[in-house]
Amino acid sequence: MQMDNMVPSIPKRIGAIKFGLISPREVRKMSVTSIITADTYDDDGYPIDMGLMDLRLGVIDPGLKCKSCGSRAGECPGHFGHIELVAPVIHVGFNKILRKILRSVCCKCSSLLLEEGKKRDFLEQLSRQKDMGHLPDDVINNVFKEARKSKTCPYCNEEQLDIKFEKPSEYIENGHKLTPTEIRDRFENISDDDIRVMGMNPDTARPEWMILTVLPVPPVTVRPSITLESGQRSEDDLTHKLVDIIRINQRFQENRDAGAPQLIIEDLWELLQYHLTTYFDNEVSGVPPARHRSGRPLKTLTQRLKGKEGRFRGSLSGKRVNFSARTVVSPDPNLSINEVGVPISIAQHMTIPVRVISKNLDLMREYVRRGREVHPGANYVIRDDERRIKVTDINKEELLEKLEPGWTIERQLQDGDIVLFNRQPSLHKMSIMAHRIKVLPNKTFKLNPAVCPPYNADFDGDEMNMHVLQTEESRAEASILMQVQENILSPRFGGPIIGGIHDHISGLFLLTRTQNFISKNDALELLRKSELRELPEPRGHLEDGEPYWDGKQIFSQILPKGLYVEFPAQVCFKCDTCKKGDCEYDAYVVIEDGELIKGTIDEQAIGAFKGRVLDKVVKEFGTTAGAQFVDDFTRLAIRGVMHTGLSFGISDEDIPLEAKEGIAIRLQDAENEVSELVQAYENKELEALPGRTLAETIEMRIMQTLGKARDDTGGMADQSLGLENSAVIMARSGARGSILNLTQMAACVGQQAVRGERIRRGYADRTLPHFDKGDLGADAHGFVKASYKSGLNPTEYFFHAIGGREGLVDTAVRTSQSGYLQRRLVNALQDLEVQYDGSVRETRGVIVQFKYGEDGIDSTKSDYSKPEAIHRVVRSVTGKEVV
Amino acid sequence: MSKFSLLDHELIPHHEIMDEDDLKTVLTHYNVEREQLPKIKVTDPIALELGAEPGNVVKVIRKSQTAGEALYYRYVIE
Ligand SMILES: [Mg+2]
Ligand SMILES: [Zn+2]
Ligand SMILES: [Zn+2]
Ligand SMILES: [Zn+2]
After folding, report:
1. Cα-based distances in Å from A388 to A74, A400, A403
2. Are β-strands A233-234 and A408-412 bridged in parallel, bridged antiparallel, or unpaired?
3. Any CB–CB contact under 8 A between B73 and chain A?
């Protein structure tokens, strides 16, 4: 090996990065060869010397050696070459600054068009900005702005002419087009001091370097050619473009040497400018993009960097990873919240490396013996010389024999392995949590529906990602910090973000409210999946002597001993004075020593975001008890809801005839009220509300009247449906839906609004031709009298569609706006860190907040800043209430 | 025209210039140099009113939703 030429692999610390312009000298210095011929390969397919594939530029074909560094393909980093341009050409990327400089320097003596004093002043401002760590952009812009104002040169008194810029890169002075050579000459004469005033460092960035005289040719590793299946070579877009440049460059040279007329020379110059422009950026406005033979625009340098799939956003900020899997998710309430069901086909493809030691040799042999086909087996073994060998039926026996400590095997996933589970968009830390896997049949990831809220997942086709951790340290860290049970409480509000949803809530609601006679068999069936060994004393005995239990007792079995909580349930009617434990609606929950004494379990007790009982269990008994509780109540709830049954159909929206008539009368009344209001308005008898015009007043009054009417009909429908109705059960317990949804289904859909106002747009003075001009009535402006059940009439349907569309537009706009807002916030705050002393600092150690949250409290560890826990300790010791 | 004191306004928290001893305690407590504190400009109206000079540290006692009162220290810069 040729060590002397190889890039040393010793890590080095980067001291500084300096940005500047590359000078022609530097280009030539770093170049390994000048490129003079547009041909790439000779007839034998061997790279031509001084062509674009010259072997000194690096190698990509296996078997060849680089002529510059002697390494093979893959090791050689590639080396730059260069093309000597026959005539200077403008670099498109610098047009903006080029224009500014051109207008700020004298056309004759090239001095910056500012008085000496002003120059000094600006230089001072620049150094001050630099000292303060501020960007010099504003000062530099002022320099150019000031200089441009001078009509004559203060040094040679030459009159300055306006320079017009024309896309893409033409500079016209007094009707004469400046050639790149002329511009370059002017720039060459600018003094170093003047360059400094313009904010540039003359040592690293002379303005004339913005006009190219020599073009660097990127190494072949940057623009590898690919061999198609047909054996034909296909070159990279950049190579194509470079071929064009070399061709035109040659033609230019030939023509000039032959003394061709000025017109032809100019044409060729322009053509050379075009090819260089599109080589740098193929999407410059005013320049037709260079195309491939097939008509596809070429992807040149700028296109490689720009945009979502560009080098920055696509390759550097965002990357693809190994050891990950993605599939559809579906629910499985029998899994623990800490678990995730993984399809066996995924488990067999994904592996965890395990080091073979003397202690696990037999186990590792067993994995290898099982191979890839029998789960859990091993897919690869890695010998101590780091060679990876695929386990196959053919080499299995041989591998088994050779397997020894020091080797590593890549074993398939099996139950209990820790993985990371994620659903996009990953908006908060609970979007990626660690789960233990459970290998299951079928092809979807399974998860306990209680973990849907933090991921914001549902099962309408959502897909999620799984990442398999490859080291012991990462698995330890993930299970301590990221496991689901460690994230039950959200740091956002200090309450549970994981908890019961939908059927969990209906199930426990039904169980603890209505189930009062549960036989032994049923009780055992309900508690079957929990770790329970014994049933409590029965509540009583039936006439035939059979013991029975009630739902509250059954629920109490999964509560930890020593749990004390009380709070009003979701179903609480918010009476003026709460009778607490004596609430006649059984809506006040009292739990003493892990026993549900009073009240109904609903969203307020176990729901995600609310869950007072869950909150208490996690904060007082720890995360493991919390996870156990969630696991238990999800299983109990599902069995509970299956025990009673809960169904909902169109007939559940049926309301009795009297109620229907009542609703119709109430709506008629409202319409009459509205016409009275309109009457009063038209007779100018209406009194304007303070600060409102009459027209605004009538609108508000009508909206009020109709809103009230809708709510009243809702109340009537709700009343007649009764508490036994499954829709009412779901709405009241917080399982799903609201009373408003019910109102709209059974009684009256109500007013449709656009921007919070009644619908007014449409034809002149009316919404639809079905109504009279100037009609202010309820139905003419989008009041939907019908219910979803009874069906909407055509005008109602139309208004409903208008209102519904606004909702859709709203959500679409809101999500994109809040997404961007979040992105900006995250970018601004991502490097802040809470230190061990409780202060919040950024990376330089500058303090941002002296105490995290000003009180230094971790919300997940605090009981909503209430000293209730300590009060209870005092109470239990002294037997007295703390005041 | 009568003069108003900014500090009398209820939306402006209490500001005071720290003496060197207190400052030393604070800096050792947080193990920082003055430059690592949040900054306030001398031209800030409240700094003008206090007559603070670059290099001073201003102590701010803010009302806090979470802690009742929260202390901040700001290094006066040009
Ligand atoms: Mg979905
Ligand atoms: Zn090389
Ligand atoms: Zn001049
Ligand atoms: Zn009540």
Report:
1. 19, 15, 13
2. unpaired
3. yes
- The enclosing H or E element of A757 equals strand A757-758
DSSP string spanning A793-844?
-HHHHHHHHHHHHHHHHHHHHHHHHHHHHHHHHHHHHTT-EE-TTS-EE-TT
* Tokens 């037709």 found at: A288
Q: Are strands A847-849 and A753-754 parallel, antiparallel or unpaired?
A: unpaired
Contact B66 A855 (CB under 8 A): yes
Give the distance (Å) from ligand 4 centre to CA of residue A718.
19
Q: Who contacts A621 (Cβ-Cβ below 8 Å, separation ≥6)?
A: A560, A562, A563
How many Cα atoms sit within 13 Å of A330 on the Cβ side?
8
Please give the structure tokens belonging to residue A429.
């830390």
Sorting pLDDT into bands at 50, 70 and 90, what band is A9?
low
> Are A846 and B73 an interchain contact pair (Cβ–Cβ within 8 Å)?
no
Mean pLDDT within A390-404: 91
List pLDDT tens digits, range A774-824: 888 888 999 999 999 999 999 999 999 999 999 899 888 888 888 889 889
Residue by residue, DSSP assigns A607-661 as BSS--HHHHHHHHHHHHHHHHHHHHHHHHHHHHHHHHH-----GGGG---HHHHH
Q: Is B36–A846 a contact, with Cβ atoms under 8 angstroms apart?
A: yes
**Cα distances (angstroms) measured from residue A214 to each of A171, A201, A669, A756, A782:** 21, 21, 87, 65, 71
**In this complex, how many residue pairs, one in chain A and one in chain B, have their CB atoms less than 8 Å apart?**
40
- Element at A231 (helix H, strand E): none
Q: How many residues does chain A have?
A: 883
Note whether A479 and A604 are within 8 A (CB). no
Amino acid at B70: A
Contact A534, A524 (CB under 8 A): no
Q: What is the pLDDT of residues A567-611, one digit of tens each?
A: 888 888 877 777 777 777 888 999 998 999 988 999 999 998 888
Task: Give the model's pLDDT for residue A8.
Answer: 56
Could you give the ipTM of this predicted complex?
Answer: 0.94
Q: H/E element holding A751?
A: strand A750-751
- Chain A interface includes B25 (CB < 8 A): no
Using an 8 Å Cβ cutoff, are A270 and A177 in contact?
no
- Helix, strand, coil content of chain A in percent (nearest 5): 40, 15, 40
Give the three-class secondary structure for A206: coil
For residues A618 and A489, the answer to whether their CB atoms sit within 8 Å is yes
Q: Which two tokens stand for residue A8?
A: 């040393």
Token reading at B36: 């690592």
Q: Structure tokens of A284?
A: 């410059």
Chain segment A296-312, per-residue pLDDT in tens: 999 999 999 988 888 98
Ligand nearest to the CA of A159: 3
A428: closest CA of chain B, how far (Å): 23
Distances (CA, A) of A561 to A409, A621, A625: 46, 10, 11
Residues of chain A positioned with their CB less than 8 A from the CB of B65: 854
Compute the distance between CA of residue A654 and CA of residue A225 in angstroms, rounded to an integer: 72
Are B36 and A855 in contact (CB < 8 Å)? no
H helices of A685-768, in order, are 694-721, 726-733, 739-746
Residues of chain A contacting residue B29, judged by C-beta atoms under 8 Å apart:
837
Residue type, A593: D
- Give the span between the Cα atoms of A705 and A298, in whole angstroms: 65
